[in-house]
Amino acid sequence: MRRGIAMTTVGALALTLAACGGTETKPADNQTATSTAEAGGEAVAGELTIWADDTRSSQVKELAADFTKEYGVKVNVVQKSESDMNKEFISQVPTGKGPDLIVLAHDRLGELVANGVVGTVDIADKAGQFSEAALAGVTYQGQTYGVPYAIENVALVRNNKLTKAEPKTFDEMIAEGKKANVEYPFIVQMGDKGDPYHFYGFQTSFGAPVFKQDDKGSYTTELALGGDNGKKFAQWLAKEGNEKVFDPAISGEIAKQAFLDGKAAFTVTGPWNTGAFREANMDITVLPIPQAGDQPAQPFVGVQAFFPSAKTQNQLLVNKFLIDYLATPAAQQKMYDIGKRVPAMPEVASKISDPDVQGFSAAGEKGAPMPAIPEMSAVWDFWGVTEADIVTGKQAADAAWDTMVKNIEGAISKK
């Protein structure tokens, strides 16, 4: 989704196959382009394709509609699977079949750069409008590769109808949740392949971050999730799994619906779901994640951004979208309005009084920047499946965790 990102800023600012990028063409409706220009926008001939996952595609479509209205440029928004969209991007861009732009969390950037599929973006003239955290998220080895629009992290969300507790520890949360006498004192998505992202705050509270950091705060390629602290986390997973607190059968949609239906007192989720809770007239509060170990919980903090393809044939239109449109307070506000993620521009973020946004910001104050190094791509699959296996009892905690670390180290060595 890195201590290189200024965490003080994070705390203050808590972010279908269509025709892909090919030769520029005239807009389907020339009158639209003319009318747009007459209305004050600058009509530009051509067409863009943007890939976005299921949680962002509808939001990007709304944003694209405004861009089309202003510039007369048709935008094809293609919904992709979040789990393998980056891999498809890497395989398709060199063939000329990839999109012009992709919407991703910044932790995939190092992998994209290493594979030569992402292009650089010159936002020097507008850099001062973005937070340091947001800029750091789209910068890799001194080069800027995208335009950020949001900063985000998960947090603890409480159903105020069921409890008013503000738990500081995991055990306290479970105890308070049980008093609500509902099906789930606490629920969190996991899935059969695990979900290290949602569980990371608990893992870091055991002192087992994914990678070590150097004296400047930058992530190294040396794993830190092994050792005694990693095993303590694994043993805790086994215990909570045995007590049915965690369950790989709980998908994101199941967890969301259970909370919506008033079957859970607490859940860990992100701003992408709180909008639905509010629309259902739920009384909720967003709180920091309680620690499961003896250290503060540090959820991942990610930067959401639009990244250009290195092989786009529509560079003029890409620049028009990224620089002239997305890198403006109006577009940043639009993305907040439809997605409720904390804007990447302080000017926009400072005007938001939404208590949910404030809650996510507070939960992210001690968050851990998501590593953007290419080696991160070798971690996810082993990590999540191992957590799921430990929770179900399919594998013994210590042995499974040791094997996982060895497998990740092996995968990293092949990069």
TrEMBL record:
One of its GO terms (biological process) is maltose transport. It holds the Pfam family SBP_bac_8. The keyword Transport applies. The keyword Iron does not apply. Keywords: Signal, Sugar transport, Transport. Residues 1-21 form the signal peptide. PROSITE patterns: PROKAR_LIPOPROTEIN. Belongs to the bacterial solute-binding protein 1 family. This is Maltose ABC transporter substrate-binding protein. It comes from Boudabousia liubingyangii.
